[in-house]
Amino acid sequence: MSELTEGLRWTVYDANTMTQGEIYGQVLCDLAAQIPTIVGLSADLARSTKIGALAKAFPDRFFNVGIAEQNLFGVAAGMAKSGLIPFVSTFSAFATMRAGEFLRTDICYQRLNCKIIATHGGTSFGPAGTTHHATEDLAITRSMANLVLIVPADGRETANAVKACVHWDGPVYIRIGRGFEPLVYEKDDYGFEIGKAIEMRPGTDITIVAAGVSVYHAVQASDLLAKEDGISCRVLNLHTLKPIDKEAILKAVLETRRLVTFEDHNIIGGVGTAVAEVIAESGKGCAFERVGIPDEYSMIGYPEDIQSHYKIDTDGIMEKVRGVLGRDFEEDEDWEDEV
Amino acid sequence: MPLTEEEWKELTDRARAIRRDIVDVTGWSGGAHIGGALSQTDIMTLLYFKYLNIDPQRPDWEDRDRFILSKGHGGVGYAVVLAHKGYFDPELLRTFNHSGSSFGMHLDGNKVTGVDASTGSLGHGLPMAVGLALGARMQGKSWMTYCIVGDGECNEGSIWEAAMAGAHYKLNNLVAFVDRNHLMIDGPTEEVMALEPLEAKWKAFGWWVTCVEGHDLMALSAAIERAKEHDSGPAMILANTVKGKGVDFMENKAEWHYGGLDSDLIAKAKTSIGGQGS
C-alpha cells in the first residue's frame, strides 16, 4: 500500500500545544487529503476522540452512527468491504468491550482494513470513573488474531502510529489517552516502525519495559535513578504490543537480567504479560515484576493520582526498580547451564 | 422486470433442487441448521437467479451486487445456492462440517468463494449491509446491497442500531428481508421474546416495509420490484415463511432448527420435497 502515500510530505505537528487526540485528528485529515478512500466513523464521540477534525474537513467522508458502538464496527466492516479505509474512533472501553465481538468477528476475523483509534485508554479519563477506564482493552485485543496493537507514548508517536497504520494492510488498534499525556519525544523522526521497540535510554543494570503514558515516567525515573543511585536503567518503549519485539526483550534479558514492566492497564494480559510470555518461552531466567493496575477495578481520581496510587508514575517506578534490583533471583549465576 | 411465468417455472424447479441438496448436505455434514435454510430458500433462489447482478466467474468483481446472510446459521442453504450458481464445485459440499473443510455451518467469506461477509453470530449482518450500502453511495457506485435477517435475530439490539442508521442515511440502495418463520431455538418467537407488531416496528424505524408470502416467488418478486423503486430510504420485505418448508415432518417445528439426517430421513425428506436432485 505504500504507493498510496508516496510523495506525502509530513508536517511537524505542534506537539507542545496539541494533545494526542488533536494530533490524531490533524494527521488523519492530512492523510485523508491524500488518500480519497479514507473515511471516518464514530458513535457520538467525534468531538471527544478528535475524529471530528475529519468531519469538519471532509463532511461527506465522516459518519456518525449515534450511540451505537456495535453498529459502529459493523458499518465500518461493511465500508471496508466496499473498498474504503475506515478509521473508527470511540473510547477504548467501548471499542473493546461494548463492541468487542463486532471488532473481533466483523473486523479481525474477516481481516478488514479498518483502523481503530481508541481514545481515553487506561485510566486517562480518571475522574469519569471506572466505567470509562479501559484496563482490559489490551488483554482483550491481544488475543484477537490478525489485529496489530499499538500503544503510542505521546503525541509525536501517535502521529507516527497513525501514519504507519495506513501502510499496514489489515486491522490496527491504536490506543491513546485522553490527551493530556506529557511529551516523550523531542522530534518526530526517531525511527518509529510497527513491531520495533525503541530503546529510550541505554542501561546495563535493569530494564524498564513500558508503553503508553508509562514511557514518560520510565524515562524520568531512569534519569533520576542514574543521578541519585548511579543505576544504569535501560528503558524500552514497547509501543507495539502485537507483533511483539521479542528480540529487544530477550536482548534486555541477556544484557540486564532484571526487567520490570509498567503499564496503565490490569497487570493481567497487557504489557507485563506479553513480556513475561516472551521471557518464559526463551528459557532464560531473570528477575521480573509486572507493575500496573493490580487485578481490581481502578480507583476514581485524576490520572496523576491514579498513577501514583498504582506506582506507575515516576516515583513509583523508581521504588519498584530499586526493589527488583535488590532481589536475588537465582543462586547460580552461570547462564550456560540454563535451558 | 417482475418474474415471468417461464422464470417462475424455472425458479420453482431450482428451489426444489436446492432444497433436495440442502437435505443431502445436511446428511453428509452430520448436522446443520436445516429448518431456517429451508425457510429462506425461495428468497435466496429468487435473489441469486433473478436479481443479483453477479458473476460467479468474477467473485471479486467490484461492481457486483452484495448479499449478506445476516442469519448466518442458514449457511447450509447459502452454500448450496452458491454451488448451484457455479461459484465452486458442488462436490466440495461433501466436506461440509468436516475437519479441515472450508465449509462450516456459518460460512467464512475468506474460505468460501462467493460469500460477501462472514456471519454466524447474530446481529452482525445488517450493520455490515448498512456499511456496504453507505460505502457504495459514497463512492458513486450503483450496486445494490441485499440482506436476509432472521426473525429471532430481530431480538438483537444491533439490528435496531442498524435499522436506525439505515433510515438516518436514507439508504435506498439497501433491500433487506426478514425470514419470518416464527420459530427460534427455544420455541415460537412470540413466546420466547415477542416481536409483533414487527411491521409497525420497522415502519417506526423509518423503513419502507411490505409484508409478503415468503414462498410465493411471484409475490416476492413483486415486492422486490417495489422495494427497488422506493428511492427515499431502505426497504424491508417481511417474508412470512415456514420453518422447514418443503419437508413435511420438519415444517413449523422448532426442533428442526438444527438437526442431522440418516438415510431413511433423507429419503423421506426428498419424497416430501419432490422433483429430481441435481
Q: What is the global morphology of chain A? A: globular
Could you state the CATH homologous superfamily of chain B? Thiamin diphosphate (ThDP)-binding fold, Pyr/PP domains
Largest sheet of chain A: 7 strands, mixed
Q: In CATH's first tier, which class of the largest domain in chain A applies?
A: Alpha Beta
Q: What is the fold named in CATH at topology level of the largest domain in chain A?
A: Rossmann fold
In percent, how helical is the residue content of chain A? 25-40%
Euclidean distance between termini CA atoms of chain B: 28 Å
What's the helix and strand layout?
The complex is a heterodimer of chains A (339) and B (278).
Chain A: H1 20-34, E1 38-42, H2 46-49, H3 52-57, E2 62-64, H4 69-81, E3 85-89, H5 92-98, H6 100-108, E4 115-118, H7 137-142, E5 148-150, H8 155-167, E6 172-175, E7 198-201, E8 206-210, H9 214-229, E9 233-237, E10 240-242, H10 246-256, E11 258-266, H11 271-282, E12 287-293, H12 303-309, H13 314-325
Parallel strand pairs in A: 1-2, 1-3, 3-4, 4-6, 5-6, 8-9, 8-11, 11-12
Antiparallel strand pairs in A: 5-10, 7-9
Chain B: H1 5-29, H2 34-51, E1 66-69, H3 75-85, H4 125-138, E2 145-150, H5 157-168, E3 174-180, E4 183-184, E5 187-188, H6 189-192, H7 198-204, E6 208-213, H8 217-229, E7 235-240, H9 263-273
Parallel strand pairs in B: 1-2, 2-3, 3-7, 6-7
Antiparallel strand pairs in B: 4-5
Helix pairs in contact in B: 1-2, 1-3, 1-9, 2-3, 4-5
Question: How does this model look, in words?
Answer:
The complex is a heterodimer of chains A (339) and B (278). Chain A has 339 residues and is an alpha/beta fold. Chain A has 13 helices and twelve strands. In chain A, helix 11 links the parallel strand 11 and strand 12 (287-293). By secondary structure, chain B is an alpha/beta fold. Chain B has a five-stranded parallel β-sheet with strand order 1-2-3-7-6, with helices on both faces. A two-stranded antiparallel sheet of chain B has the order 4-5. Chains A and B meet through helix 4 and helix 6 of A and helix 4 and helix 5 of B.
